[in-house]
Design goal:
The chain is an all-alpha fold. It has a domain at 20-62. It is 82% helix and 0% strand. It contains three helices and no strands. It is elongated and about 50 Å long. The protein starts with a helix and ends with a helix.
Length: 62
């Protein structure tokens, strides 16, 4: 059982770069925000979509 836990931890680090719960929560919130923006961007012009993506990435990197 310990081995599976170690493998899972290694996979989480490979995907997200951390196992810190607060950091993972922040990543999840940023992903949810990006999904909402992406859904609302379906009616926008390509330039507006790109600007929204840039803004959401800036928010994530802060």
């Amino acid at each position: 059982m310990k081995r599976k836990e170690e493998e899972l931890t290694a996979k989480i680090i490979d995907i997200f770069g951390t196992t810190d719960p607060e950091e993972l929560r922040r990543i999840a919130e940023a992903a949810e925000c990006y999904r909402k923006i992406k859904d609302s961007a379906k009616k926008m012009y390509p330039v507006e979509k790109i600007l929204l993506q840039i803004l959401s990435l800036q928010k994530f990197l802060r």
